[in-house]
TrEMBL record:
GO terms for molecular function: ATP binding. Belongs to the ABC transporter superfamily. This is ABC transporter ATP-binding protein. It holds the Pfam family ABC_tran. The keyword Ion transport does not apply. SUPFAM superfamilies: P-loop containing nucleoside triphosphate hydrolases. InterPro entries: AAA+_ATPase, ABC_transporter-like_ATP-bd, BCAA_Transport_ATP-bd_LivF, P-loop_NTPase. PANTHER family: HIGH-AFFINITY BRANCHED-CHAIN AMINO ACID TRANSPORT ATP-BINDING PROTEIN LIVF. It comes from the Bacteria. It comes from Deinococcus rufus. Keywords: Amino-acid transport, ATP-binding, Nucleotide-binding, Transport.
Length: 248
């Protein structure tokens, strides 16, 4: 940690507010390779929080660790005060965590509608009809193979389909990556809609404009550590620092 800028004291949860997600002293490993070093972060109910950092800094590994996809880790992860550290990923999902991976995981041989209806529907989750109303292109392409959608349409499908399961926490890995500005704006509006409905979101992003427009707080990752935590206002006044952390 000493090699990097010292973390500034960032905003902490309001007194009396229990974080929805609380990650303590997370260390993660790929075989012998130790890639996360004592990560501490939290997401409050209804908050949008971003993880910012260069390629390879450990952002995706953090999401995989929370989701229980990467099992080789130490530390503690709680959701709504319950320890989920040792739960397999399907049980983490059943507790209300939904992960939209960077590669979007659209099944090419299934139709758009079949892809949409893959996650288990739960009470309070989005119906197929509601999804079509939110993004009518999916209705128009309902019977096309998933592979025929554009990158932006795939991102919309990948994000909207997990809402069927009525998650309380959404883990979004680089939703704007490789997409045209108009679809990035549409994804931004969707995230704002979900926030307005009370969803908590942990967002991995390298698009600084996108992240700073949407997120209430930001954690900066360098080499598997969090080296800074910024409020929404600080992300604007200290934009130069953030750009330095993202430049190669
Ligand atoms: N399956 C894997 N096996 C071994 N090492 C891995 C694996 N996945 C990631 N790593 C390594 O772990 C470190 C953190 O990677 P991670 O994918 O979490 O970074 P990131 O910040 O999400 O960046 P990116 O945007 O490139 O995915 C990197 O050094 C990466 O090379």
């Amino acid at each position: 940690m000493t090699a990097h800028a010292a973390p500034t004291p960032g905003p902490t949860p309001d007194a009396g507010t229990q974080p929805l997600l609380d990650v303590r002293d997370l260390n993660a490993f790929y075989g012998q390779s130790h890639v996360l070093h004592g990560v501490n972060l939290h997401v409050n109910p209804g908050e949008v929080v971003s993880l910012i950092g260069r390629n390879g800094a450990g952002k995706t590994t953090t999401l995989k660790s929370i989701m229980g996809v990467l099992r080789s880790r130490t530390g503690q992860i709680t959701l709504g005060g319950h320890d989920i550290t040792r739960l397999p990923s399907h049980r983490v999902a059943a507790r209300g965590v939904a992960w939209v991976p960077e590669e979007r995981a659209i099944l090419a041989t299934l139709s758009v509608k079949e892809n949409l209806e893959l996650p288990p529907a739960r009470r309070g989750g989005w119906s197929t009809e509601r999804t079509y109303e939110a993004f009518p292109v999916l209705r128009e392409r309902g019977h096309h193979p998933g592979s025929k959608l554009s990158g932006g349409e795939q991102q919309m499908l990948a994000t909207l389909r997990v809402l069927r399961s009525a998650p309380t926490l959404l883990l979004l890995d680089e939703p704007s990556e490789g997409l045209a500005p108009v679809i990035v704006q549409a994804i931004g509006r969707m995230i704002e809609t979900l926030r307005a409905e009370g969803m908590s979101i942990l967002l991995v992003e390298q698009n600084l404009n996108f992240a700073t427009r949407l997120a209430d707080r930001h954690y900066v990752f360098v080499d598997g550590e969090i080296v800074d935590e910024l409020s929404r206002a600080e992300a604007h006044t200290r934009r130069g620092d953030l750009l330095n952390h993202l430049s190669v």
